[in-house]
Specification:
Length: 307
C-alpha cells in the first residue's frame, strides 16, 4: 500500500500574492513574472493506493488542515472532487492548530457532507467556543479529540500521531504577553504512516526540539515551516512590525534557522507555509539557491508525493 500526499496549498496565511500586498516578492507575482508561482494557503491531502502503479481510485482522503482556500484547492485537484451525487472522497480532516488559515476552510465543508474532524482537545475547544462552526452538524461531522503522542487510525489504513511543537496560541486568542515557544496542544505537528512509509508535517515551529529531531530523522519526507527566510524579513520589507519568532516561526536561514537545524534529518525535506515576503518563492534568487544547495525543496501547490 502506498502513501500519497497532495500539497493543496503551500503559502502562509493570506496566500501568495497576498491580496493587499505589493512587496518586492508579491509585485513579481502581480506582474506575472514566470520566476514566481502563485500559491494558496497551506493544506495537504493524504490517501493510500494499493501499489505504486495505481491511482487513489476509490480510496478516501484525509485533509490536514482546512485552509480558507479549500474550495479553490478542491477545484484544482480532481482526486478530491465528488465521485457521485453528494459523495465527496474527503473522509476526515485533522487540525494541527486553531489559526484562521488552518480552520476557515471547514466552513466550505458545511453542506451536510459526512466526515470526521480530529484535533487536540485544546483546538476542538477553540472551535466549540465559536458558534459559527456549529454549521458542521454533529450528526454528520463527529469531533474526535486526539491526545498528542497517542497513535490513532485514519480512513484508508493510515496511522497518524500528533506531537507537540513549540509555538503559540492562535493570533486571535493572544493576550498581552503571549508565550512564543510553549509546548502545548495549541500547536502540533503530525506524523502519517502507511506500509512503513513516514511523512511528517510541521507547518509552524518556533524551534526544533530533541524529540522532534529524533522523529524527523526516521521520516521519509519532512514538510517543515518555511514561513520567513530571515527573522526580520517582514520588518525589512516594510510589510509588518513583527519578527518571525514573534509570530511563532523560526527562520529558514541563519545559524539557528531551519536549514541548519534540520541538516541530515529526513530523506526528503520540503519547506511549506511560505510567507508572501519570502524570497525563496523566487526561482533563482540567492535565498532559493541557498535552500536548494542545502538539500531542501520549496513546496508548490499541486505537488504530489508518493511513498
Amino acid at each position: 500500500m502506498r502513501l500519497t500526499t497532495f500539497i493543496l496549498g503551500a503559502a502562509a496565511g493570506g496566500g501568495f500574492p497576498q491580496w493587499n500586498c505589493n512587496c518586492d516578492v508579491c509585485r513579481l507575482a502581480w506582474a506575472g513574472d514566470p520566476r514566481v508561482k502563485p500559491r494558496t494557503q497551506t493544506s495537504i491531502a493524504v490517501t493510500t493506493a494499493p501499489n505504486e502503479s495505481s491511482s487513489p481510485g476509490d480510496a478516501p482522503f484525509v485533509l490536514i488542515n482546512a485552509s480558507p482556500d479549500l474550495r479553490q484547492q478542491i477545484v484544482a485537484t480532481p482526486a478530491l472532487q465528488p465521485r457521485g451525487l453528494r459523495m465527496s472522497p474527503i473522509a476526515a480532516v485533522v487540525l494541527t492548530g486553531g489559526e484562521v488559515d488552518q480552520t476557515a476552510g471547514l466552513l466550505t465543508l458545511r453542506e451536510r457532507g459526512p466526515f470526521a474532524l480530529y484535533g487536540t482537545a485544546g483546538t476542538l475547544s477553540t472551535l466549540a467556543a465559536n458558534s459559527i462552526f456549529g454549521v458542521l452538524a454533529a450528526d454528520v461531522v463527529p469531533r474526535k479529540a486526539v491526545h498528542p503522542g497517542s497513535p490513532f487510525a485514519l480512513p484508508g489504513g493510515i496511522e497518524a500521531e500528533l506531537f507537540l511543537v513549540p509555538g503559540k496560541t492562535p493570533l486571535y486568542l493572544e493576550g498581552d504577553n503571549p508565550e512564543l515557544e510553549a509546548e502545548t496542544d495549541a500547536n502540533v505537528g503530525i506524523e502519517l504512516r502507511a506500509n512503513g512509509a513516514r511523512l511528517v508535517f510541521i507547518p509552524g515551529a518556533a524551534r526544533l526540539t530533541a524529540a522532534m529531531a529524533t522523529r524527523l530523522a526516521e521520516a521519509d519526507v519532512v514538510l517543515f515551516d518555511g514561513t520567513l527566510f530571515s527573522d526580520d524579513e517582514m520588518i525589512a520589507a516594510g510589510a509588518g512590525v513583527k519578527t518571525g519568532r514573534r509570530m511563532g516561526h523560526m527562520p529558514v536561514g541563519g545559524p539557528d534557522g531551519a536549514l541548519a537545524a534540520l541538516a541530515g534529518l529526513g530523506r526528503r525535506r520540503i519547506l511549506i507555509h511560505i510567507n508572501n515576503t519570502n524570497p525563496i518563492l523566487i526561482e533563482g534568487s540567492p535565498q532559493r539557491r541557498t535552500v536548494e544547495a542545502a538539500g531542501f525543496e520549496v513546496a508548490e501547490d499541486g505537488m504530489r508525493i508518493d511513498l
